[in-house]
Specification:
Blueprint: H1 9-35, E1 42-44, E2 47-53, E3 62-71, E4 76-83, E5 90-92, E6 99-104, E7 110-114, E8 117-123, E9 125-134, E10 141-152, E11 156-167, H2 175-190, E12 194-195, H3 198-204, E13 205-211, E14 217-222, E15 227-233, E16 239-246, E17 249-256, E18 263-272, E19 277-284
Parallel strand pairs: 12-19
Antiparallel strand pairs: 1-2, 2-3, 3-9, 4-8, 4-10, 5-10, 6-9, 7-8, 10-11, 13-14, 14-17, 15-18, 16-17, 18-19
Length: 295
Amino acid sequence: MQKSVQRSAAAIRFGVLIAVAHLLFVLIAGKLYAGSYASPWVQGQNSSLRLIAAGGGPSQGVYRAGVEIRLEPGALTYWRMPGSAGAPPVFSFEGSANLKGAEVLYPAPSRFEEEGSEVFGYRGQVIFPLRVAAADPARPVRLALRLSYAVCAKICLPVEGNATLDLEPSGRGNSADSDASAEALSAAEALVPHPLTPQQRDALVSVTLESAGPVPSWRLSLRRSGSDDVFAEGPPGWYIETGKIGPDEYLLKAVEKPPAEEEASVAVTVKDKRQSYEFTAALALPVAPKDSAGR
């Protein structure tokens, strides 16, 4: 005799609850993926980092994203040229998917005294804006970051952090999250120095030789007021100290240079109250006249 099996009302209700829970999980997970404009925080020594991105999708295949670092009170991390001590951050995007390239932008740094040395970097918090180009603009980019950086508090420690963030061409997602990330990125981008053309540089800046002694120096004069500080990055073998000597007047001293080299092309960053800017300047020493024997 065939026996019929009938499910109880409790079992039916339990099955319905499981199905509803599964559907809610799928919907919430999809919403979180679509609305995720920041990776989870990655904890490091006296610091933490994450990736963030602005909403709205890419513009001409390029996304606005950034690397955000938060530092413990009293700790600092370094600019791309750390000064007379420290180490610059090293960004790697190896392991990313559908990535054509990622350009790192650097906000103008501040100058700090550290164990008798002048160093350049950031305290509290810094966002390095990124310009992320997709290999195929129609497909998402999986941005994978490996960042090596140094954090100094009472002692200096190397830190490495890894983060991943998916960037979608549709730009869909939670508007509050995307607005917050876009606002933070806009504030960081405003701190990135604006590159001057040679014509703009010549209209704003003059560089004259101050001393051709054992430690040669040049006077940098700015024709626009409002500068806070100046930083100079020399070619390999050169180290240029900078210091303010008057309103919008700075001294550039070549404290290290190859003995045989008498000129250098130097990248100069001017930290300005309104808009920081950067340009390339030629530092040159006068050529000594040759004697009658051509020496």
